[in-house]
């Protein structure tokens, strides 16, 4: 869930970045990944969800701050993203990833990246446009974030639950 002010910040960022890459599109939904996208066989879904629920049960709610603008590309360099990297709360996210990875290993699925850059994607475009977005553009975007009224409050995310999506099914795991 996002606040109106966050959407105002997003519009400023995308508008600025479009002067460097006109084809950028703003994200409509926001998330922070704790795993790679994997394919679950239908008969694995229930045991996978049960295992996730068990592994995530001991975790408590926590805050993280995502306020560092960064440019990302997917593994095959077919998409470029502008995201907000987590600057506080990294340790708690690593602990969550460790438990999610254990569940993935139970099903012989790929685990998360070794040195993850936890982030929330804000905008994307087709192709590898990182050379256009890094440098001057990235600095301008960070200046917008740093100077935006209430950005410290807006970019502080409370983790109350973890979501898992499999096909058209959504599962939620509340944190204590």
Automatic annotation (TrEMBL):
Catalyzed reactions per annotation: a 3'-end uridylyl-adenosine-RNA = a 3'-end 2',3'-cyclophospho-uridine-RNA + adenosine; a 3'-end uridylyl-uridine-RNA = a 3'-end 2',3'-cyclophospho-uridine-RNA + uridine
Domain of life: Eukaryota
GO biological process per UniProt: U6 snRNA 3'-end processing
One GO molecular-function entry: 3'-5'-RNA exonuclease activity
A GO term from the CC aspect: nucleus
Keywords attached to this entry: Hydrolase, Lyase, Nuclease, Nucleus
Classification via Pfam families: HVSL
Role summary: 3'-5' RNA exonuclease that trims the 3' end of oligo(U) and oligo(A) tracts of the pre-U6 small nuclear RNA (snRNA) molecule, leading to the formation of a mature U6 snRNA 3' end-terminated with a 2',3'-cyclic phosphate. Participates in the U6 snRNA 3' end processing that prevents U6 snRNA degradation. In addition also removes uridines from the 3' end of U6atac snRNA and possibly the vault RNA VTRNA1-1.
Protein name stated in the entry: U6 snRNA phosphodiesterase 1
Native organism taxonomy: Eukaryota, Metazoa, Chordata, Craniata, Vertebrata
């Amino acid at each position: 869930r996002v606040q109106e002010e966050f959407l105002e910040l997003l519009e400023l960022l995308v508008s600025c970045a479009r002067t460097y890459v006109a084809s950028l599109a703003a994200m409509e939904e926001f998330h922070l990944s704790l795993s790679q996208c994997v394919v679950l066989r239908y008969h694995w879904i229930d045991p996978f969800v049960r295992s996730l629920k068990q592994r995530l049960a001991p975790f408590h709610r926590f805050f993280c701050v995502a306020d560092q603008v960064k440019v990302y590309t997917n593994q095959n360099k077919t998409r470029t993203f502008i995201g907000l990297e987590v600057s506080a709360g990294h340790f708690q996210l690593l602990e969550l990833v460790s438990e999610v990875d254990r569940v993935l290993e139970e099903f012989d699925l790929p685990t998360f990246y070794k040195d993850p850059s936890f982030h929330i994607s804000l905008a994307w475009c087709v192709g590898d446009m990182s050379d256009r977005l890094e440098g001057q553009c990235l600095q301008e975007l960070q200046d917008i974030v740093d100077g935006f009224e209430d950005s410290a409050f807006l970019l502080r995310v409370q983790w109350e639950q973890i979501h898992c999506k499999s096909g058209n099914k959504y599962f939620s795991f509340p944190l204590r």
